[in-house]
Write a structure and sequence with these properties.
The protein contains 6 helices and no strands. Helix 2 crosses helix 4 (107-136), helix 3 packs across helix 4 and helix 4 runs antiparallel to helix 6. Helix content is 77%, strand content 0%. It is mainly α and 175 residues long. It has helices at 3-49, 52-68, 80-101, 107-136, 142-152, 156-162.
Length: 175
């Protein structure tokens, strides 16, 4: 092989390397741009669950709903205050479920943050939602149901382990 052919091969290798590097950098830039666009959405989700109203609604559903009201007619037949609690939590998780189902927000992020609560609340609300669907022939909270199914297929501990979360217990915990 003469020097000119060797030089051409070398130029081709360098060009291919530059192209591969450019593609890798462009892909990383796209991923970073995508994540930066999602940050406000994720922060709003986290902010909502920290409100006093959301906490009170979770507590009502968890501690009082089934003892105080039958699921027979669906949730629209319940008193306004009860519907407010169910809608606040149920429709919130339904919206989160939409984001997860369509790949907009990472499933593991949501399940790692809310997995137990999602599964627990769905277990309580499912009879009300199913009665609602039957009564009105609709697909009320179908994304919430899908999200609850996803949450039931793993544990928050497994999600945290997969994310590489570590513990740092206080010094007295081992004594």
């Amino acid at each position: 092989m003469d020097a000119s052919a060797l030089l051409n091969v070398l130029a081709l290798v360098v060009s291919a390397g530059a192209l591969a590097t450019s593609l890798a950098v462009a892909r990383r830039q796209l991923r970073l741009a995508h994540h930066s666009n999602l940050l406000p959405i994720v922060l709003d989700l986290f902010k909502e669950t920290r409100t006093l109203e959301f906490s009170r609604s979770i507590e009502y559903i968890r501690d009082h709903l089934t003892a105080a009201h039958s699921a027979h007619g669906g949730y629209r037949m319940l008193p306004e205050e009860v519907k407010m609690h169910i809608r606040r939590v149920g429709l919130f998780y339904d919206d989160v479920g939409k984001l997860v189902a369509h790949g907009i927000v990472d499933e593991q992020l949501i399940l790692g943050a809310y997995g137990n609560a999602i599964a627990r609340v769905w277990t309580t609300l499912a009879p009300y939602v199913y009665a609602e669907r039957e009564r009105h022939r609709n697909l009320s909270m179908v994304y919430f149901e899908d999200l609850a199914y996803r949450a039931s297929q793993t544990t928050m501990t497994a999600v945290h382990a997969a994310a590489g979360l570590r513990t740092c217990p206080p010094p007295y915990a081992s004594q």
